[in-house]
């Protein structure tokens, strides 16, 4: 029989060293008695030295689990770990079998320790103990952890509070951090810590951040079990806060505001539709477009995207609607389709900076799909409502030629969307006689999956842009 | 009036801040002060340092810089027309409170919000000054969340994003019409524009320059927002529709739902209402299903006729109860997508099922050990040694989960 006694400080390393030796020497779990310094010495256990033999390898996930489980308070923890390690030797895949009873037990112990560590990070409360004008401020806390969690958790406090001295006293092990170095000592009785003025402020905060109208005591207790309360200054006030909550909530409710019913929005939209054309001062157009609520698209889009370009442009290019990028930045033709347009326009000899670019519909219409927004074509009524703005822009710029890209632009300009593929490359007219050259929309080129069809459509698009240049000459 | 003490101000300005649901301190960059030259660390996951009896986590010092406000939003306790006691912290007072609380391990950092005083720019610039002082003078490396003012100058927002871990703007109410009614000075399109600017700034800060250098990170914990639930007439379909749009449009980290709770000192009387806490809870559950379980909006909201979530059973169970034709599922064969739809199975459980299934067939007891909530799941699955028999299609299945009908109490 072998015996392994684990020390209270440095337990993880000690267990790992011992287990490695036992495993290398091929000693089965039933031949080892594990204990810590609190367990009574076993009368029959005879300590035999182990001769290490060769290397052993274990899954990394086991080591990480073991270095947590050793801090549990279950006296069986060391034996359980070794017994599972023994099984793991021949079947490393057991680490991924969460249904295995032994692993499941160890994992739940690991979870308990993690939770205890987490609660320690959360519920330790320091009081200032240092003298004034000391080069480093110093703080101390008394804490009662459920498991042996001081040592594995101390590094958290080092990472966080390195510019001050601190000590955490517990009945189990105490951690002391002085002048940048951490050490552990044996546990002790609760020390008397001096009063701290900030504690009163903290209690004031705790009492006032609480909303008495939403009392949920169970939710609080499941996350902040009562066993921690005695060392948390704010917890002493909880019973009183709970007792007063219903009366306070009632008082609040009796003085609650009345909220007027929703209306108006539709009426405004209807009013707007009664006018026949936008008429306003020249520089107010962009602002009026930004405030548009003529159709419901404004509710979901970020902003209306007005046209952009020289106000005396000969050519006005009309696209479909803003896309994701246009919607975010508030500028037309900046997304992928706009960039493709710029590229092909350059090839066709079209002077982009002399062109006014806009869209048939000013707000982005989309449907959310997971973390992305999928473009949706605007419907007839939305296009119809937005003609108001398109007409106003045409009236302001008075271009010699309109270039309509895609079916939506065709509908916005001519009232008819059908047959864009056969109508492209032809010239139609607006009601007031401005010629409209129809072509494909660049996003159509981006979407075509077949490389040959894509190349053909791109060539057609380039020809149409070149034709626009020629028509203007 | 006598000068207020810091404690009096703290009482007023934390009371004024409690209607903001968010207290998260997670998802930012990992950093520490092991070098001894600063204070604080951020571990990636947040820590709740205390819980109030309302069940909410207290992770941050959540306060208003001031509760003076020029706006008059009818649902807000700090609106201009309210008679609540007013207070205002100085920049140094907020900095000192944050540092002293942090050193005593009370908090993870600061969540600073404010009423709008003088002008949006003046208010925002004071808030930025607090963050600047914390970061540059106190070398504070804990968490900072700033509530931005929608119409503040872009350079202020830009600086705020470099100092803070998270920025947020509240959309306040689920529909534009409701915002216009109840918060007449707030412009929904301006709020959306601010969120769009945030996303663009964050995307720009991810691009490396031509020298390969990364620009400083912009608000690494992202942006979030909050909606008040139950103040206007919107149904849950409208609310969740709004949040899916916000998630997809502006890459929000979180949308918080806050059950409208009565506030003291209101303009006129309202019948006594209790905050719809259960509805808020169901909305969070549905929000989770949309983001992590691959549910589509219409699947969740089509379960009931009025577009509201079922208050008695959770949304996943509600969906399963009306789609019993796909159940029971064989846990040893079903796809990941389908396993995620089983009530009582979470993402972790499903991952465990999938990794164990590679080696052996799963039995009913395995599922218990894997953390599945079998009380719910057992009616919808088959596993080694378990078949639900007629349970899946039984008429009283819903009644097994729904709370028992409430008995009338004697008056």
UniProtKB/TrEMBL annotation, chain A:
Superkingdom, taxonomy of origin: Bacteria
InterPro entries: DNA_repair_put, DUF4130, UDG_Type-4/5, Ura-DNA_glyco_family4, Uracil-DNA_glycosylase-like, Uracil-DNA_glycosylase-like_sf
Domain Uracil-DNA glycosylase-like positions: 306-462
Record keywords, A-Z: 4Fe-4S, DNA damage, DNA repair, Hydrolase, Iron, Iron-sulfur, Metal-binding
SUPFAM superfamilies: Uracil-DNA glycosylase-like
Keyword Iron-sulfur: yes
CDD domains: UDG-F4_TTUDGA_SPO1dp_like
UniProt KW DNA repair keyword: yes
Gene3D superfamilies per record: Uracil-DNA glycosylase-like domain
Family recorded in the similarity comment: Belongs to the uracil-DNA glycosylase (UDG) superfamily. Type 4 (UDGa) family.
PANTHER family named among the record's database cross-references: TYPE-4 URACIL-DNA GLYCOSYLASE, TYPE-5 URACIL-DNA GLYCOSYLASE
Protein name as it appears in the record: Type-4 uracil-DNA glycosylase
From TrEMBL, chain B:
InterPro entries listed in its UniProt record: Aldolase_TIM (IPR013785), DNA_rSAM_put (IPR023874), Elp3/MiaA/NifB-like_rSAM (IPR006638), Endo/Exo/Phosphatase_dom_1 (IPR051675), rSAM (IPR007197), rSAM_sf (IPR058240), RuvA_2-like (IPR010994)
Keywords: Iron, Iron-sulfur, Metal-binding, S-adenosyl-L-methionine
Domain Elp3/MiaA/NifB-like radical SAM core: 59-286
This protein's record includes keyword Hydrolase: no
Cofactor(s) required for function per UniProt: [4Fe-4S] cluster
CDD domains: Radical_SAM (cd01335)
Alphabetical list of Pfam families matching this protein: Radical_SAM (PF04055)
Spans traversing the lipid bilayer: none
Signal peptide: none
Keyword Hydrolase: no
Organism domain of life: Bacteria
Protein name: DNA modification/repair radical SAM protein
UniProt organism field: Sulfitobacter litoralis
Taxonomy of the source species: Bacteria, Pseudomonadati, Pseudomonadota, Alphaproteobacteria, Rhodobacterales
